[in-house]
């Protein structure tokens, strides 16, 4: 027993491999943090691209004089202008509706996105082109999947049951008179 106790004391005093232990402990934490920051930056880049392409599509709506534009047309315009939104045509939802100028009440974003888990769900989205001089609200929602479950902590994005993040963009414009 004395030999064993002496051997344990001698091992406790040795300092070989101390830096290796520090590396083994800190490396996974640093890599998880790096991956989470990288993915959060990718999500933010997709958000910026969604807002940019929605603004480009709204320009089509604003300047379209007598042109009938449908929700699939706007969805196609958004998806054609960015390659950063994977499976864009299936996961992008468009909502266009007039805003009452007396109250300026806008609808909630809760029912804007498609729940991928429930394909039979019906959305309350509209696509109403509005009349002349009418204030219009156009909203887009895109669902993006995360690579790692701990990314996107500070983004305050809504998550659905399938784990997807809901990225939303909105823009307002006034229909030009004919």
Task: Describe the secondary structure blueprint for this structure.
Layout: H1 2-13, H2 18-63, H3 71-80, H4 88-91, E1 92-98, E2 135-144, E3 158-159, E4 165-174
Antiparallel strand pairs: 1-2, 2-4, 3-4
Helix pairs in contact: 2-3
Give a quick rundown of the structure.
By secondary structure, the protein is of the alpha+beta class.
Quickly count the helices. Answer: 4
Strand line-up in the sheet with most strands = 1-2-4-3
What is the number of strand segments?
A: 4
Please tell me how large the radius of gyration is.
26 Å
Structural class comes to alpha+beta
**Major sheet:** 4 strands, antiparallel
How far the N terminus sits from the C terminus, by CA atoms, comes to 99 Å
Mean pLDDT: 79
Low-confidence stretches at least 5 residues in length (pLDDT < 50)?
Answer: 119-123
Helix content: 40-55%
Order of helices and strands: HHHHEEEE
State which percent range the strand residues make up: 15-25%
The rough form would be described as rod-shaped
Total domain modules: 1
């Amino acid at each position: 027993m004395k030999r064993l106790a002496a051997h344990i004391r001698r091992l406790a005093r040795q300092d070989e491999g101390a830096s290796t232990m520090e590396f083994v402990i800190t490396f996974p934490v640093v890599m998880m943090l790096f991956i989470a920051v990288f993915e959060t930056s990718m999500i933010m880049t997709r958000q910026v691209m969604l807002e940019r392409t929605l603004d480009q599509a709204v320009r089509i709506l604003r300047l379209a004089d007598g042109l009938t534009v449908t929700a699939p047309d706007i969805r196609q315009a958004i998806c054609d202008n960015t390659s950063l939104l994977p499976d864009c045509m299936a996961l992008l939802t468009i909502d266009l509706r007039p805003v009452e100028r007396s109250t300026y009440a806008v609808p909630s974003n809760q029912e804007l996105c498609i729940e991928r888990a429930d394909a039979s769900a019906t959305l309350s989205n509209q696509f109403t082109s509005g009349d002349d001089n009418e204030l219009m609200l156009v909203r887009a929602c895109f669902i993006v999947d995360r690579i790692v479950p701990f990314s996107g902590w500070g983004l305050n994005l809504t998550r659905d049951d399938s784990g997807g993040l809901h990225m939303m963009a909105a823009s307002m414009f006034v229909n030009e008179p004919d």
